[in-house]
Specification:
2 domains; ODC_N (chains A, B); NAD(P)-bd_dom_sf (chains A, B); homodimer; eight-stranded parallel sheet; 17 strands; ornithine cyclodeaminase, domain 1; ODC_Mu_crystall (chains A, B); Rossmann fold; Ornithine cyclodeaminase (chains A, B); alpha/beta; 347 residues
Amino acid sequence: MMQPSDKALVPFVSVDNMMRLVHHIGVEQMITQIAQQIDSDFKRWESFDKTPRIPAHSPHGVIELMPTSDGEAYGFKYVNGHPKNTSEGLQTVTAFGLLADVYTGYPTLLTEMTMLTALRTAATSALVGSYLAPKNASTMAMIGNGAQSEFQCLAFKAMCGIDTVRLYDTDRNATAKCAANLQERGLTVVACQTPEDAIEGAQIITTCTADKKNATILTDNMVGPGVHINAIGGDCPGKTELHRDILLRSEIFVEYPEQTRIEGEIQALEADHPVTEIWRVMTGQAKGRTDDRQITLFDSVGFAIEDFSALRYIKNAIGGTDFYEPLDMLADPDDPRDLYGMLMRAQ
Amino acid sequence: MMQPSDKALVPFVSVDNMMRLVHHIGVEQMITQIAQQIDSDFKRWESFDKTPRIPAHSPHGVIELMPTSDGEAYGFKYVNGHPKNTSEGLQTVTAFGLLADVYTGYPTLLTEMTMLTALRTAATSALVGSYLAPKNASTMAMIGNGAQSEFQCLAFKAMCGIDTVRLYDTDRNATAKCAANLQERGLTVVACQTPEDAIEGAQIITTCTADKKNATILTDNMVGPGVHINAIGGDCPGKTELHRDILLRSEIFVEYPEQTRIEGEIQALEADHPVTEIWRVMTGQAKGRTDDRQITLFDSVGFAIEDFSALRYIKNAIGGTDFYEPLDMLADPDDPRDLYGMLMRAQ
């Protein structure tokens, strides 16, 4: 075996190493740090190449590529969305991602992103919550208790001061799983029998359900004044969670309108319905919540810059650690024009 | 460390394993087999989702994602193009690729593709040559003696009956490298001092140079009747190799016109200049070479289906071998909704 050069070896973070890294840093601490990276990157929004993700739809689900670049680093995520997978014992969403150096085009990081996407999605939600939720919010309704739910609860605890979560899912086993996982994490956990029960007294409502259809998780009469809605689950064409009337009563905030109008809750609205880009709130160019009775809605679909932030965070975090392994992924002959010679010498 | 399930483990072919596989099969044999896969996939052209590749341009080069799917498998390639890299001791082009199962969205193969791209590019060139080159062609001019050149020469030997190659490069060291690498491969190799000398007596002219600019490797008066031109190097906006007058005298064949009009030699022509899609020649729906004096031109830029074919070939070829290693790339908890529980149990 030939020894590949350093340039040919791409640091790879396996699922196992990602989990070790999370425990090394701490779940809430890591979510908070990723959120800080996202905040910092969203505040320089205009320095990024942005494009709606590139989907490959099939009757079974969707496979997407989400690239972006700030001119120095390039990142992309591969992610699938297959709601029917759960019934077959598979993940609805799996992902991996890559960072590369724009100057050379050489990859600099390959990492699992199923776990990392859960962390960055929770980080984004709570970061936006910290800008939009009512002051002194203490209770969150968590509707949909699947793979993302615990991460959401912990993120809002760490970043928005939530001390009570009220859980609801159409499947009681999912609620029981979520409640059990959140024991001894410093949260009061209430398992609820109905969505109405779950939102009782909540200042923040997070919806995160997975059906690929236009569902109505929240109806208009369920949502009182002053709440912040964090709508995560509606994230592709034909997949929404909220009744249209709620949208009409809400001040709507989005990541990247060009993508959200295709994939988010606002599919149900006119194409020119006013929305606010959340990065403008972060930089102070737009207002967030302006009064106590306002309903704020974060219509979140997930955007490539969040993955870029998470990838850069991981690249920094693994430096000097053993939470990665070098992957022999790039052919790198001594003479770059002599790829064939490299092949022959390997014999 | 937790033991990930089979579904979480993606077969990974490193550069080292790819080179072992090539030697196991044989270079010319493997190029020929990949060409057969490409031929078979091009003949079912209409069953593929096709899109021009998604580029991220910078002043230093380009990074591209090239996805495609036939509804059952999904594949994409990451590839960079940085002509300035060579002067810094790096590859102009590096690549890796992935196959996934459309039904689950789960990746099924990750592989280096720097070496594999060289093989599939040569396979595509010689496959098209087998449809378009004049009968009984025996001599090929190889202009540009970089990383792709030896693969091109061997492919045309294996698939088109070439027994003599005439090499030219502006850098004599590149020609010397190519000539040395082709010793004892059953080819008569002639190192030439000028492009005019190289094309002397050649029935096939392959151009494969790397400058990112509109260069004129061939001028009109250099190209006589009856030759087949295999133009590889012009493959992004502003990067061409042939004088426009040659194009006007040629019958032009392309992979995917939507992409070639942006990236190929035909950038220099009107947007409605007639070209023939090569898959139509393969299926018999369009004519290839129709007379001995015709100049045929394959304006090749590389297309995603070629990579898809190469990826599927590798996936089949590694079955039952040890030319890959399982990569712990996908989080796959026993209960798909219990990603957080998987994380906690890993502690």
